[in-house]
Amino acid sequence: MKRILAQVRKELTQLWRDRLTLALALVLPVVLLLLLSKATSLSVKDIPVVVQDLDKTPMSRRYLETVSSSLSFKLSALPTNLSPERVLAQNQARAALIIPPQFERDLRRGQNVEVQWLIDGTDANTANVMRGKAAAITQAFTAQIQPATIHPAIKPLIRYWFNPGREDLKYFGPGVLAFGLAMFPPLLAALALSREGELKTILQVYVSSITAFEYLLGKVIAYTLVAWAEWIAGMFVLFVIFGLSLAGDPTPLLVTTFFYLLCTTCFGTMIGAAIPNQAAAIQAAQLGGFLTSFLLSGYLFPVTNIPQPLRFLSNLVPMRYYLEVIRDAFLRGGGWPAIWYAPIALCLLGAFFFWRAWSVMKDMQVKA
Q: What is the DSSP letter of 238?
């Protein structure tokens, strides 16, 4: 135990003396949380739409006022020298609204009127949102001018049970914190081991009395403590700056955070033990900690939307499990019955990562 604590003290002292690495450990996760939480949003607002009103009647202007009252669209008149298709091709607008001639006359006669929406489909998600918004606005306008005489048999009453205000920050803020903890602790741990391998200072470990298990455990404990400092700084931003609060029992979050930070640190230790080169270790940590967490964890879209076999690989991404826990803690508050499996999965993954690092170090000591 004394050798393990000495290794922990040595790592923390070295980190404290290296102010650049210390800034990487504590400042960059907070900056990432502040920037990415505010920059990421699924809300669609102020989409530029050009209007070609071929009717120019009070009824057509009333329809345009209904559309412009929505926060999703920002209307502007179609330039006289351009067609709607040309405006979309030049990327001057994301949609074009064309009101046909005799719009008011046909509506007052009770005839069907087709209002054309030309939507830029290059961004499929935004295009689907625009289509739904346009249909909802048109349906609401029709209900105003032609109230239905027969009430529908089923009328849906929709209520958002969790996050009723549909605030993107409550969804992406905790996700960005989990994302930062999947990036920086593995990177620091990988750099710590690969630096010693690259500078050949690892040879001092081989000739010392410390075992590979004690050496790696000291590394893991030291950088897990640093990861806890990053987590505390991130939670301070979520609570104080963003004004978020926990929705239920904090015990599942605390327990799962312990295993998550331990797991991500063991992952970086595995990379650093296997790759004795700092540049290559950074590349591997970015590939394993950044890309997989960003694409396969459910940060942007549900895991169920990921096709096989990539969906199976998401089971090996630690952030997938922690993301469910931290979002449950801030939004749903389901507690242990909802996320009981997450700390178990993280514990198993962390044990595997540590075992792989220990196997490499043990073999290297034997060869040395």
A: I
